[in-house]
Each structure stands twice: as structure tokens, then as C-alpha cells.
Amino acid sequence: MASRDEDFQNVFRNSNNIKERKKVLARVLQFPAFNEEDDLRTAILIDVYYEMLSYLVNNGFPWQEVAFFFEIFQSLLNETQGKPLVEAIAQFKEQLSSNAQYFDDNNIKSVIDYVFFTFFPHYKLYQFVLTQERADNITEVGLIVEPPRAAAAMRDAIPKSVWDEEQRLKQIDEMEQTRKLERSAQHEDEMQHAVQQLEEQFLELDSSTENLTSEHLATIIANVTAKKAAVTSATISQKIDEIHDSLEFKYKRANVVHDNEKGGRKSAASSRHSKGNSGKK
Question: Region Disordered: start and end of each range (predicted)?
């Protein structure tokens, strides 16, 4: 039985980090490179072997005995796969008995206690891990990574005061557009109502051709004239509202530009003008 006492000394000598020790142990045992999450069987075997070695080292076993008892334990794991627990216990006893004369009785008893209290109580679990193939359950998610947009050239940058002014002017434009839509909807309702009333008067006139008195005719004509006047009034009112709104928003825009220039800052309009002329000589 080949001795690995120097290799096992290197496992515990180079680092106090358990993960690093396990990596060294995997190389000593000539395990191929593996991923712990994808290859649980190998990861579990490394854990089992490391715990066995740690027990022997921490209990002061000579390195030669550490290597000997480890190989007995490794042989027990490899040669009892698929066998019942009774046969595994019999094989373990046989391996110890054939070499018991070379080692201290207390150390042999300590190894027996370790195997019977840690390995054999979970024998079926070890058998399952070592003999059953793990079903693959791999989830792949495709991610679309959008590269960041290229930053604009600094020559196209504008002062923050100009940007703020442009945002305020943009808000005023949006307010004006909203006002126009509201005015248009209101005027449409008024016109439809006035036209409907006018049509009702004409219908009344058409239905009253018989027995139509002069007083009744004068009343209908007066009502028709009033409704037509209402239609005209609605149209004129719309024009007046449009002029009022236009002046109101022009005043708001002028105030924005005035406030910006009052603070000693270049306005959006002047900034655009100077930028447009920057390339001219």
C-alpha cells in the first residue's frame, strides 16, 4: 500500500483555508477539475475524504498512519459500492485485522469509532450518492445586454441655464397645445348645440305651414334669427379666445427669456444663434 504521508502533509501545511486545502487534496487524489455545483458527487467525495484526514491529523496520528488509514477508508468507499451494509462492515474489519499488529491499539480503536459513528450510520446515503446518476436540471436564461449609448460630443453641449429655459418653454408649448384642444372641444359642443336648435326652428317652420298666423310666423323668425346669432356669437367667441390664449402664452415665453437674461445667463434663442454662426467666418 503506497504511502502518501508527504502529500497529506502538504494539504495541511500550505494553508489554513479549508477550501484551499480541499483543492490541494483533489489534486493529490488526481481528481479532474470540477465545479462543485455541477458535480455534486465529486464535491461530496472530497468533503468525506477531507473530514477523514482532518480527524486523523487533529487526533495526532503519525503521518504514516494517516496515509495508511486513509487508504483503508478510500478502499472501503470504492469497493463496497452496491453492496449491503453487512458486507461493508465485514470488509472493514478484515482490512484492519490484517494490519493491526503494525499500529497502536488506541489509534485503531479511534479509527473504528470514527467509521462506525460517521460512515456506517449514513451508509445508504453514501451508496445513493456514489451509485445513482444525478438528473440534470440546467436552466439557461438568455440576457440581452444593451451597450451604453455614446455620449454626445462636448461641442454640442449647452449651458444648464439654456437647457432649463428650453424645458420651461417646452412646458409652455405643451400647455398651449392642451388649451387649444380644450377650446376646440368646447367650441365644437357650443356649435353643435346652436345648430341643433336652429334646425329645430326650421323644422317647426316646415311643420307649421297650415294655419300659420302672422304672430306665430314672427315668433319663429325671431327665434331663427336668435339661433343664427348664437352660431355667429360662438364663432366670434372662439376667435377671441384664440387671440387671448396666443397673447397669454407669448407673454409667458417672454417672461422666461427675460428672467434668464436678467440673471446674466445666455438665453436659448441667443445660444442657438451663436452656435449656428460658430462655423461661419
Answer: 256-281
